[in-house]
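Troubleshooting entry. Yesterday's outputs looked truncated, so today I'm pasting the complete records for two proteins to confirm everything comes through intact. If either block looks cut off, that's the bug. Protein one:
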Amino acid sequence: MSELTAAEWKKINERLAKDPQKYGLPPRVYGSAVLASFNIRKLGKADNRSVNTWNFLGHICSHFDLISIQEIMDELEGFDRLRKFLGPDYHAIVSEKTGVFPGERGLGERLGFLYNTNIVKRGEVVSSISIDRTKLLQTMIEHYEPLLESVGPYIDYLKAADAWEEAGRTGRKPQAPKVKLPVFLSFVRQPFITSFRIVGHPGTEPYELMAVNAHLYFGNSIDDRRQEFDALMNWILARVKEKDTTYFPNFVLMGDLNLDFNNPRTDRPRIEAHIDAFDQAVKEKAPGANVYFPFIYEHPVTQSVLRTNARL
């Protein structure tokens, strides 16, 4: 795709400046914090984007106080450029690369946060979210037969690859098949969780939250995508249930969830029903808690809705 012309950039920036709310940028309200989740495709080297593009991305990010960013490449030059654009009041925290083992081929990425330190203070807890070995073994034992059946083609591939090597690599090299697991075992990219305190009006207590930054699996079907989403939601709900020992009691999921929103008219009711089921479950397990997705539900006080393609 070719770079926009100077006239096109001028038109874009003028329209955005004239009515930022029309294009989804929320207003700042005294005593509140504005949060965003932003998948910036392959955010790596700075010279991969034009100066106009960097200025546009930085301008968008400047409207928010806490921003979770997905698809940060191992090269942090671009992420650092965004942080510097926002000025010294903004700090950053970023995960290690996830999604690929070091030294092996694959598209690994980092997950990061940018936050305005005038409003948002970082807590002490910073971690990745993983599934412990005991839970993993339990799942494998309970679903042994379907798991064995699903990996059968890959076992055949390994045998064929060994035979190809022993034959001196003659003939066509065997190709690894895609394996579709029948149950969730582990995240393709480990979600990144960080504790934050949001400072409110003078004299008020800070709002304390655990921000979960996740870039979930982009599978070929709804079932593929839902596996990781359900696993992450269940992890969060189980942690909320342990409210007496969690570092902060509130959890905010800020990420690219890949929930297949291609057709809002048909997809939103399906996803809304799925979220409702989680809400009912958490109310039963942790009285007083609830699940709220602002892209789906009306605001509980103002009854307003976010301007989003999820609501057309």
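Protein two, checking that the full record survives here as well:
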Amino acid sequence: MKVTRVCIRIDIDTVRDTEVLPAVLDILDTFGIAGTFFVTTGTDASFKNYRNYRNPLKLLRNRAIRQHGIRQMFRGLLSHRHVQTSGNVASVIERGHELGLHGYHHYNWMNTLPVQDRDVITAWISKGCDLFEEAYGFRPRSFASPGFATSTAFLEVLDGFGFEYSSDFRGKEAFYPVEGSRQFSTLQLPVAEESFGELVSQGMSEREIYERYRRGLDSAEDLFIFYMHPSFEPLINKHLLIMLLEYISSDSRFEIMTLSQLAKNIKRRDRAEDTAGI
């Protein structure tokens, strides 16, 4: 029987995400699932996402408002809170989950990364690593690019940090990025499906989202990685999330693991295949 390896990635983008972390941690604990969390570092500037909304009705319909609430619009104007030092993040580690780095200054990263040069990107990742270590006592061993933003310069810089893996793309198979004749050395574990929040914003119902995920899981050849945010799926789509986790955890076709465990399995398999080919 074919077994699909399933990983759950949870991105901590904002202070609001840190405040509601217990909700997703409790759900994962209920199913005995270890998730992979990525926390951004630096100032929470998510309020900037709302400044282009001049029509109040459009603003209130925006997914981010549903996710963070009106207070989030003003929080960044009044204070400069760092995401990594806000409450509850340490509990991710304490409760047996994996924690990696989700870049530095999430808003700037996802909006400007493609036009930044190597020096700026190196400085950003270095700063993120330093803030992460200062907050949690160890260097991050994995990375996920905010907003799935990438560039050639980013991939070049990323290789120099020696992360065990990174999750910067969308796709259905693990891979090493290739550009021309060059292959980059950081293993990529891509996200296979859009988040519930993204699909809701496209007008999909909970039933449609559930069926879409089931089809994706059932047709996956080897692995299936999906992602969420603590302030959306576990709160706004809690019923849907529980249904999906029940489906995955009750079926022997699926093996749930962290992204770190998946990376180790893939590298172990690759080494065995290389040895066999000698």
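Both blocks look complete. Sanity check on protein two: Strands lie at 4-12, 36-41, 98-104, 142-143, 165-166, 178-179, 182-183, 223-228, 254-256.
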